[in-house]
Amino acid sequence: MKKSFQSTVYVIFVIVTFITLAKSFMVYENPFSFYENPLVWLALIGFVLVVVLKEVVNVLAIKRATELQNEKDGIVPEPSNAWIQKLLKSWTKAKAIEEEQEIVLDHDYDGIRELDNSLPPWWIYMFYATIIFAVVYLVRFEVLDGDNQVVEYNKAVAEAKAALNKYKATAKDLITAENVTLLTDAKDLSRGRAVFNLNCASCHQKDGGGSIGPNLTDEYWILGGGIKNVFATISNGGRDGKGMIAWDKTLKTADIAKVASYVLTLQGSTPAVAKAPQGEIWTEE
Question: Angle CA(129)–CA(130)–CA(135) in degrees, nearest 5?
């Protein structure tokens, strides 16, 4: 057992030393990224296997030598699992079959005899633990009026909302329906057109005339026009149960702002085939 422990410590020490040296001398940003430097991983795995195999062979050799010496000296070693048997006995206080006569009671029911076994210590300790827990719980929540699960949940939600609002107020690149602005730069609109053709043209046509989705070239809007409404519609999706899916999990907010700005450039254009108006006329306030 002592030699096995020493071998384990030795293996761990050698592996940690190898990793430290590799980290010190490698010029890669992350030398232990398999994709960045697979040779380091292969070397580490091979090195660990060699070290572990060496220690296993060493331990087995010492164990065999000890067994041969014990046989020569006439020593009968304890079974390898003797410590497990001792642990189980200490945690159950069970009597061996040969010792059961010591705890047999006088009760006899149709040949069935009763043993006066003690309760296992682990069971008794768990029972004591439940009593202690019950007392602490009673004092904490009934006497001192501590927060229950509902109150703790509401507090956690309130803290999360406060942290989110603080993040939104200070984040520079966070775009929402409240702070989005109409983009007019040619580069932004070009990106918006590319994203539109890739994701939106299948329902609205490349020229915005509409197909499954509504016509984007007229002045009629189902969920409102303007950059803020169009951004919100793309982000959150169309009407419940029908209409466009929400794209906020697929597209970045910056790309949604560019798509929304590009969509507004389609207003007043003449598509090849224009779908009938849907929604109501929307005018900028």
Answer: 100
Cα(9)–Cα(87) distance, integer angstroms:
25
Whether 189 contacts 261, CB under 8 Å: yes
Is 262:193 a contact under the CB 8 Å cutoff? yes
| Global pTM value | 0.45
Which residues have CB under 8 Å from 174's CB, separation 6+? 167, 168, 253
pLDDT tens-digit series, residues 2-58: 555 566 666 677 777 766 666 655 545 555 555 556 666 777 777 778 777 877 777
Rounded-to-integer distance, Cα 77 and Cα 63, Å: 12
Token pair of 105 as six digits: 């009671």
Contact between 19 and 27 (Cβ < 8 Å): no
Burial (CB < 10 A; 0-12, 13-18, 19+), residue 40, is buried
Q: What DSSP letter does each residue of 214-252 carry, written as one string?
A: PPSSSSEESS--HHHHHHHHHHH-SSTTSSPPP-TTTS-
Q: What is the pLDDT of residues 54-91, one digit of tens each?
A: 777 777 777 777 777 777 777 666 666 667 777 766 77
Phi, psi of 216 (to 5 degrees): -100, 5
Question: Which residue type does 60 have?
Answer: L
Residue with tokens 């939106």: 200
- Buried b / exposed e over 227-246, threshold 16 CB at 10 Å, is bbbbbbbbbebbeeeeebee
107 phi/psi in degrees, rounded to 5: -65, 135
**Identity of the residue numbered 56:** V
Half-sphere exposure of 266 (CA within 13 A, CB side): 30
